[in-house]
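Exercise: predict the structure of this protein bound to NAP.
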Amino acid sequence: MPTINRQVRLAARPSGLPTASDWELTTETVPAPGPGQFVVAVSHLSVDPAMRGWMNAGASYIPPVEIGAVMRAGAIGQVTVSEHPGFAAGDWVYGAFGVQEYAISDGAGVLTLDTALAPPTTYLGALGMTGLTAYFALLDVGKIRAGETVVVSAAAGAVGSVAGQIAKLKGCRAIGIAGGAEKCRALVQDLGFDAAIDYKSGNLRRALRELAPGGVDVYLDNVGGDVLDAVLTRLARGARVIISGAVSQYNADQVRGPANYLMLLVARASMTGMVVFDYADRFPQATAELARWYRDGQITSREHVVHGGIGDFPDTLLRLFAGENTGKLILALDRG
Ligand SMILES: NC(=O)c1ccc[n+]([C@@H]2O[C@H](COP(=O)([O-])OP(=O)(O)OC[C@H]3O[C@@H](n4cnc5c(N)ncnc54)[C@H](OP(=O)(O)O)[C@@H]3O)[C@@H](O)[C@H]2O)c1
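Solution:
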């Protein structure tokens, strides 16, 4: 029996924060899978700051979402019907299924989830793309070493919360930067960071001077803007700055670069951009290691699950830019 698929499509390219008129809600009939295909009932959408960048025209590390296209999104769900030998009805899977209730897939880029190891949503969190981003950013690009001081911004978020835990288990001193007293409390008490700084209150530079008197060896930058500029003034000699993202700039018409970049010269430091997709051939090895740490209780996964319909996606996305999430922001789809 045909089933209705509700979808969120990009209707216009936003200026500033996306508004309701940038989106269109459409419905289609779910197609029957052809040979080598299967249908997924999407249960949880990954809501990511990068989505804001994908809405813009122009060259980036991934093509923009076209006007009229279903909004790109990572998601998890269960296979409902399959004509593919590698996927069976009932399997839990992760893929770039988009902001829609059902997706048809040929299996390219789709991962089957081990739900005996972790709940499905954890494959959007610590065992998903954001966990992998933290893993490769710190271990591959940052090359963290025991005893070093590692600073992470948006530390209570999806990437940041895993990054701080990886820094700790590698014997580093982990300092998180996050917005608000409750997030800072959680970083230290729940996630084991050595210290946390509330960038919304007080003086970030002074706090860094006090908490990292020997300087910052590795900075995982998720936010850019003033926070990046402040950390640049506190770099230790040979520091590595990893540009993971710049959430403070994603809604700006004119992106503001760091004023204090000459501190890289003073500290003989490097600043390197990284994109997790470049490590795709190493995802199985990294996921296995993250899964072992997760199973052994060395890392936890924080997920911030919002329940709603597909039409709640636009408002859920805005929560990221208001800092309303702690951990990985996920929209759990209620088909109603
Ligand atoms: N390079 C890659 O391959 C890759 C892959 C995944 C994600 N990323 C990047 O990693 C970063 C974090 O992503 P995520 O998925 O983990 O999101 P997240 O940290 O869970 O959520 C975004 C957080 O950013 C903070 N924020 C929002 N506006 C801000 C502002 N103006 N100034 C400072 N902080 C602000 C908020 O926390 P506060 O309450 O603390 O402000 C918010 O909770 C993003 O830049 C994202 O693009 C990169």
